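Internal tracking record. Fields below are filled automatically when a chain is submitted to the structure queue. Please do not edit lines marked as system-generated. If the sequence contains nonstandard residues, flag them in the REMARKS field before resubmitting.
Queue: standard
Priority: normal
Entity type: single polypeptide chain
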Amino acid sequence: MSIKLHAMMGVSTLAAIAAFGGVAQAQINGGGSSLVAPYHRQVADCYGVDRPLYARGTPPTPINTSAPYTPYIQPFAGCPTALSTSNTVEYISTGSGTGIAAVYSHDPLRYGDVDPAAGTQNYPSVQYGLSETALSNADVTTYNSGGVIQGVTLTASPSGANQYPIPEPLYGKLVQFPVAVAPVALAYDPVYKKVADASGAVTSYRFAVNAAFARANGGLRLSQATYCKILNGQITDWNDAAITADNGGVSLKDPADAAAFSVPIELVGRSDSSGTTQVTTRHLAAACGSLAGNAFTAAAGTSTLPPALIGNAVGGAPISGKFTVASGTNGSATYLGFTATPAASTSLTQGRLGYLGADYTLPNSSNNSLPYALFTADLQNGAGAYRAPTAANATTAFGANRPPETVTGASGDYDPTVTAWGVRSNPADWTRVGNLANPTPAQAYPIVATVNWIGYTCYAAGNVDVIRTAPTGSPVGYLNYWFDDAIVDTSSPNILANAGLAGLPPAWQAAIKNTFLTPTTAGTYPTAPLNLGIATAGTGLTGTSGVTNSTCGSKVGA
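SYSTEM-GENERATED OUTPUT FOLLOWS
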């Protein structure tokens, strides 16, 4: 059985339980990254009960059902490993900032009403988030001791709006680790002008990429010096001499276009707190350090654009040298497309350029029937080479990064004496920020993110086994399925690779599973004393095995 459960949309819980021989259904709830949302949804649907992918709103809007909702997320054809689980993994595409805020506050109302048809809030809790915004040491301290993050105030005595209890005493230690590597593309529509004749027939003119550099879905070249100036609002026209020089001295003008070539660049960015923005700002701070007037120097690693570069929201008039901002990756991708049609005897010119996950651009969008036909630029990396935003080039950028306290090699085995990459007990050490800011390997694509799972160590009974390995006789947990089957399976097209994203190297997969997910009797695995194994609150037990997290005995659990 290769395609599983795709007929189950809309069935009742009772029917779902009956279909799986009376196995009780469990549900975990999360939200966050819009970059990875479609493919997280595909993995979740292969693992358990099919659900819509919702986008944040009031109420949230389903964005993977039939028209008029877009994008339509196709079920993954040929799900790796047939499972018989009635578990449900819910997810709302909110942007990384809201995903973090929900995990820290443990408040599902930050997402709104998940199922508009139900008429009530039926998203009872928050078990996890996904984010390209890497949580720092300061963020870990806020989780443990209180403070403010993403508009959420954590305090021992919450008493007002947006105030919540400090999470660590309730849900145990913070968990953060990467689940995928993602290239962030500079994307554009290949059409820059449309001319309608008197009868309304439209002729389209396309950017003409130098034949020596062109590829099927883009290939126009932008050096670091050039894209630094473009994204700082200092180069504002596609006919700029610097862009022509990057492309071998060949203009981007369509040879069939008889008019003078001048296409204003309209920058497109995110209005919400976004992990994709954070990855982009940290790169532009590192790669554009020598640029006078670099607005990203002071904004390195921030999840919102520098205020001086923000123009109007989508729907407002574009401002030269400033970003028109849209909500979510799908909002940016939609706005980047040249979908307008000129009236008879008129013309339209559009030259938008924006940053977004390469999974929303061709050919990856076509693989998943997303309605975007965006091309991408080849960017110059820190070694001076031009590279496309592919999964292979993102993997190269991730390069020699090692998990914390890990021996050399692919095993991922724990060694507490190897601390060059940090320590496993610190959630901030599981992400790679500084050395991904401007990668130097010759084959590396320069703007690269890790998509990170954020959650808790201690979960309520019924939730814990959906997240990691379940007791004997029950289906595997969702994260085990992610690492063991959905991402590393080689018998069918890989879900992440199909989207132009990259899975983690074997050492990372092993280190994550052995540290957080493997139920073990205390002492049978060297990481057991770290008390990082995800466990059942009130007992500290991981299923039918022994104690892997003695700190969960007093926790309420998520």
